[in-house]
Amino acid sequence: MAELLFFSGTMDCGKSTLALQMDYNHRARGRGGVRFSRNDRAGGSRISSRLGLETDAVEVLDATDFWDEVVNRRTKGKRVDYLICDEAQFYSPAQVEQLARVVDEMEVDVFAFGITADFRARLFPGSQRLIELADRVQVLQVEALCWCGRRATQNARTVDGVMVMEGAQVVVGDVEMGTDHASAGGGGQAPVVGYETLCRRHYMRRVTAHGANIMARQDPLLPFEVDACLWRGSGETSA
């Protein structure tokens, strides 16, 4: 029986790599499939992995109807046994429902890959609907790490290295662990927007790798960890 599977995890945990591997495995067994993605870091109509793997894909737009996509291909005699749906957090709830219908009524396997929560630790609408409808939800076993070495569970957005909690839900960027943004945004340059995976502790304290590097250079060193809210670069403002 066909299934709707949702593979979730934080950024930098190998979702796109697994999507490409699964597509390869199914094609190697003679199955026909279609790769979909949206807002990939490599640009439109691509699925790319940070390991350097990359291939073409169908770009998902607001008007994309997955039911029509499958029907049109099958009408033309093309074999469609499965769909690879990368960056599924950016799909609309209605599109996720279309994927569920494709599974139930056409017996097409759907393998969806995406981030569960945004930089504010709130569910993406597409991910929420996938969790509600998927036959199985699997958290990837490859653990992303926080700069401190703990397991990363949160996705943080940074502007010039400083974690932010406001802004549009969807802003395409990439993970740049340990990058020093001290001079970014100066001299009339546009602010550098990036993403970083953090453990819950440092996400709640708003301590990024850039902030940790600054605090580590401060003297004298204290025999305990200073709460990030005491650091002016944490994004908090004092009353």
From the structure above, extract its key features:
six-stranded parallel β-sheet; 239 residues; 6 helices; alpha/beta
Write a short abstract of this structure.
This protein is an alpha/beta fold. The chain has helices spanning 15-28, 66-75, 93-106, 125-133, 200-205, 209-217, and strands at 4-9, 33-37, 46-48, 54-56, 58-59, 82-85, 109-115, 136-139, 154-159, 162-164, 193-198. Helix 3 runs parallel beside helix 4.
Q: Any overview of this molecule?
A:
It contains 6 helices and 11 strands. It is an alpha/beta fold. The strands form 3 sheets. The protein has a 6-stranded parallel beta sheet with strand order 5-2-6-7-1-8, sandwiched between helices.
Shape: elongated
What quaternary form is this? single chain
Q: Unreliable segments (pLDDT under 50, ≥5 consecutive)?
A: 177-185, 228-232
Using only C-alpha atoms, the radius of gyration works out to: 20 Å
List the SSEs and their pairings.
Elements: E1 4-9, H1 15-28, E2 33-37, E3 46-48, E4 54-56, E5 58-59, H2 66-75, E6 82-85, H3 93-106, E7 109-115, H4 125-133, E8 136-139, E9 154-159, E10 162-164, E11 193-198, H5 200-205, H6 209-217
Parallel strand pairs: 1-7, 1-8, 2-5, 2-6, 6-7
Antiparallel strand pairs: 3-4, 9-10, 9-11
Helix pairs in contact: 3-4
